Amino acid sequence: MSTSRPIAVLFSLVAATVAFACSSEKSDEGGAPPPTTQPNLGGCYPTDPSCTIPGSKCLAMVDNSASKKKTLRISQLKVSKPAALASTTINFTIIGPAVTIQNNAACHLNPGSKAGTFNWLMEFDVTDPANATLRTGGARPVKDPAAGFCFLDESIGGSSLAPQTIKITYDAATGAFATGEGKALTVPIFLDQEGKTTPILLPLQGVKITNGTLTENGNCIGRFRGEKGELDSDCQTSSSNPADPEAFQFEKGADLEGYITAEEADKVKIVDLSQSLCSFLSNTREPCPDDAAFKCCRRGTDGKVDLSSASGKPDFSSSGLKACSGTPDCDAYLLGTELSASSVKINDSCKLVVRLARGPPCARARGGSPPFERAARAFHLERQDRGSV
User: Fold this and answer.
1) 3-state secondary structure string, 351-388?
2) Among positive and negative, which fits the CA dihedral 144, 147, 149, 155?
3) 197 within 8 A of 271, measured Cβ to Cβ
4) pLDDT reading at 266 higher than 90
5) Rounded distance, CA 288 to CA 76, Å?
6) SS3 for 179-192, per residue?
7) Which of 341, 110, 113 is nearest to 237 (CA)?
8) How far apart are CA 384 and CA 236, in angstroms?
9) pLDDT tens digit sequence for 269-290
10) DSSP code per residue over 15-84
11) Which of 202, 222, 290, 382 is the least crowded, having the fewest Cβ atoms under 10 Å away?
């Protein structure tokens, strides 16, 4: 008896029955999707139901009000310090377009070719306000934001991109929150909307969020400036000065800060500027040892970054965890941003689910039928957090 027929049948069966939890399972932790109708709030608030749930003034995409966890994605990051980063180029050419969610033009967010390449997720567990926590980290780009995001939990180039869980203070009556001790967190910025290229890694230390408020039943941090007269007739900003609040479509809802050492900043390549973050911050331009096409910080005879003659010197001590000026322990830059966030679906996991062709979901692959598990692994199927939806 020929073996080709059983093999072909097995391949056909597996191909017809394998599905992904991220793209097909509805999580009970991620809120409800928007309905098919949308009230008109006036001004520049979008009426397309794919943009936001009814009545939301931050363009929330799911309703967290009945969920145990409040799941959000940072919708805007305004870089406010150091001065070198609080520029038009960084805010409106690099960070802003990448943070903009990859959605349709009817949402008035002006998505471009970089939209959705910088995804920073926030998952608040406020079931017990006295022991509230925040899980935060990066995510890969997705083709359909409505299908949800997954925390990126892997290593790239030796750097762990696992999300971090931070204890927070939380006031259930007002929604006010703040993180406690700062955490180390590496967040990825991808260079393409498919998430297939190696991302730029931003290794932050001492990450803290302060002056934050969860509003609209946990759906928002900050709001979209959609009231009549806040944006222009095309629902875009009327200013290009990053120091002007009117240059941004969202109103801030929290402050986020962290620091990055000069050594780590020299590893962060700003593709649009052909230089490292350290080079940009310090205003020094030496050929990078690993790529002469990029400019990096000057290095001494010991091979370490030497910014003794730089005009943009570090302003933070990673050893003393304090601001500094011109002292030998000044080895880092303090980064400050203002953030806004809107609710999205965060899928609990991106694990593979095996489904029967004409039946209900089976157990997850790791605990399900061994033949299906082996067959699924043989296909090397991608998870959603690798860009598959």
Assistant:
1) CEEEECCCCCEEEECCCCCHHHHHHHHHCCCCCHHHCC
2) negative
3) no
4) yes
5) 31
6) ECCCEEEEEEECCC
7) 110
8) 32
9) 999 999 999 999 999 999 999 8
10) HHHEEEHHHHPPPTTS-BPP-S-----STT----TTT--TT-SS--SSB-TT-SEEEEEEEEEEEEESTT
11) 290
Tell me how crowded residue 300 is: count the other CB atoms within 10 A of its CB: 10
Q: How far is CA 5 from CA 8, 12, 372, 378, in A?
A: 5, 11, 18, 18
Residue 255 tokens, joined: 């402050």
CA atoms of 175 and 171, how far apart (whole Å): 5
Angle, helix 370-378 to helix 4-17, in steps of 10 degrees: 90
Of 29, 15, 16, nearest to 149 by C-alpha is 29
pLDDT of 263 over the 60 cut: yes
Residue 210 is encoded by which pair of tokens?
């302060």
> Helix (H, G, I), strand (E, B), or coil: what is residue 210?
strand
The tokens for 128 are 């017990």
Q: Which residues contact 283 (CB under 8 A, 6 or more apart)?
A: 84, 310, 311, 312
Prediction pTM value = 0.81
- HSE (side-chain half, CA atoms, 13 Å) at 81: 14
CB 386 within 8 A of CB 156: no
